[in-house]
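hey so u asked for the seq, here:
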Amino acid sequence: MPYRRRACDGISVHRRADAADARAHARFPARDAHRLIAKAEYHVDMHAGDLGEILYAFGGYPITGDADRDRRGEALARLYTPRLIALYREGSKLPPAAGSIVLEATRRGVVSILAESGGNGTLEEADIEVHLAGVRNIMRYLRMIDGDPRIPGGQIIATERYVTRAARAGLLRLKVAIGEAVSEGQEAAEICDIWGETVERVKFARPGITGLIWSHKAVNTGDPIVRCWITEPAPGFPETDRFMRSS
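ran it, structure tokens below
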């Protein structure tokens, strides 16, 4: 289901679906969650990174503790994503986004996943293909269309994530690309003054995979530059392993 920012306040409504939020901008998505999504059995929330955000594609699902719902939710996340799976758990290093459409839908018994691909205000064919291939995979799994799903081998699962920030203000020169495996101590970016002199070399504190790059040309002290996923190989999952392909 597509959602856009509301023109009246710029709020991204998929992130404000909490019925407990009484502000005017929150009541509309909360009503959607109650009246529309809650009537569904399955829900795929398709997104891309916001303007200024370069995003690595992934499929996410908030674990509920209901074994059957979680089995189906993880299956949909694995079927959607080309590689990266994020399973959010309350109280973990990878918690769900409070008030999001996906979280509120799962709390109402809907199998709801977050499907992310693309970003930075672009409409790239490869990013669109991730969405199309993922949704078709899910539709085949649910017997909505003919054919069998196909899952690429080598999927990985996120365990946590961290943000690398600027310690100095200045002009930013990125040194990494989205989806890149990085190591501890590797240079993430160079910050220069207006004369082109380097004032900081920003380095990664931990290894990971670049999952979100903020496309700033200039930064202030404390601004985020890169968010990395910490991952490990995805364990076997009988519900979808039969659809796995080596290439």
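The longest strand covers residues 156-165. The helical segments are 24-35, 67-80, 101-107, 125-141, 238-241.
lmk if thats what u needed
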